[in-house]
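Possible regression after last week's pipeline update?

I re-ran a chain I had predicted before the update to compare outputs. Posting the input and the new output here so someone can diff against the archived version. Not blocking, just want to make sure nothing changed silently.
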Amino acid sequence: MLPSGNGALASTFRALRHRNFRLWFFGQLTSLVGTWMQTIAQNWLVYQLTGSARDLGLVNFVGAIPLVPLTLYAGAIVDRFEKRKVIFWCQAAMMALAFLLAALCWTETVRFWHVLLLAFLLGAVQALDTPARQVIVVELVGKEDLSNAIALNSGAFHAARVLGPAAAGVLIAVSGVAGAFFINGASFLAVLFGLFLMDVALIRRTGGGHESAKDLLGGVRYLRKERLPRAVVVLISLSALFAMPYHVLIPIYAREIFGRGADGYGVLMSATGVGAVLGSLYSASHGVGARKGAAITAGSLTFPFLLLAFAFCRSYPAAILLLVGVGFAFVLQNAPANSLLQELVPDHLRGRVMAIYVSLFLGLLRVGSLLLGGLAAMTSAPTALAVLAAAGLLVGLWVRFRYPELSRTA
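New output (post-update):
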């Protein structure tokens, strides 16, 4: 329940007043722990199977392939149908894929092409699931608590980023990767039960109806016309291409630069999660809600700058501290950007615009993963990370001067 009183704590967690959002929040938190366990285990599995930085990037890239043809249709589906049901079936499909990968690893029959195929199928499901999960939040809490709810969602995502990698590192060291994939599959049950228990009467249905949702290009036209929403989409998309894929190289940093095993890899990934949780709590406060543009601008410059420092770091304790800062700055950029975009977009277009936003984010993130992995294979992990982090910093500076109104937006 929401803490009583009108203090800072109650304000920070105010979206939890809504019963449906509480079910969503805690179900997501449980499931995301499993998702992060799978992410860590999958990267470690690929590195064990191939030992290649290029293949680490390739697995992340393959998941982007379904996004391009499915983006416009996914947005129209999200605007047209009940989002709770769309998410339910998407989550059930992802649960089945996780159990299949667990079975392949448990029977020791897993091959690299299996991982590629399952990554492709997961990307196809996520093309529909992710925009639906973004848009359902406003239906659970209304616009008055939207910024707070998105920040708390980000907090859940990154709290799982603390717990999941640490648990995965220990589990992989003790029993191998199969257990991590199985636990991820089981964790989807928390989301499914949460969706089932929601009070449908309390959901604030948004969307343009069946006729409006047939306009597949409505979101594209809106972003071409409206400068401020376009600035948000451009900034986050280019950041996803250059700065955000850094996690692909963390297994290489853990083993080859810091001389650590799976447990050390888990600690490094958890460090970014700690920083991101702190950033999410900060973003959930009234302070960031009143000055989203300034927060987005600050995060877009600090995030790649800290990555650039991490690229040249050779001290394991210092690397942990830098990654805490990276996580904080990442959320400072992304949580206010998400809420600002949803507040700007009309209800009847929200699904289609957020589908474009999410697809560009996920697609370019995976393209960036492939680019980073290939560059690291040709040069070295630190060189590749430094180049892309510098590019991300230049993007932040370009957007700051190309769209000055963004930094002034409340």
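Follow-up from reviewer: compared with the archived run. The chain is about 80% helix and 0% strand. Marking as no regression found.
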